[in-house]
Amino acid sequence: MTTDEKIASFGLGQVIHHRLFNYRGVIFDVDAAFQGTDEWFQKNVSVGNPSKDEPWYHVLIDQDGRVAYVAERNLEADKSVEPVEHPLIENFFTGFNGDHYQVRQTLN
User: Fold this and answer.
1) Residue environment code for 35-59, b if the CB has 16+ CB neighbours within 10 A, otherwise e
2) pLDDT in tens, 69-78
């Protein structure tokens, strides 16, 4: 690993809290660096000044039904033991153990 590579601070199935937008969610995918388009970045990243070089997370937003793409600096671990409610939760996870979600194993 080079010194430029970032280590993700959060993992698949971890319940998080968005520092700026005050929502809870669960991480279902992680990118080591921003994987979107420059157009998306300019349109959607107006606060927090995140770097494209830090880890970015795909998040199922609790009680919302939407999916977010979030820079690591905008997330923190959620202290709640409540499960996340989202219509896609069962597509990615097999259950919640009060701490995190169990990732559904898939074969490529």
Assistant:
1) eeeeeeeeeebeeeebeeebbbbbb
2) 999 999 999 9
- Per-residue three-class SS string for 43-92: HHCCCCCCCCCCCEEEEEECCCCCEEEEEHHHEEECCCCCCCCCCCHHHH
Residues 6+ apart with CB under 8 A from 40: none
| pLDDT tens digits, 47-73 | 667 899 999 999 999 999 999 999 999
What structural domains does the chain harbor? Answer: 15-94 (2.30.30)
Does the predicted model carry a pTM greater than 0.90? Answer: no
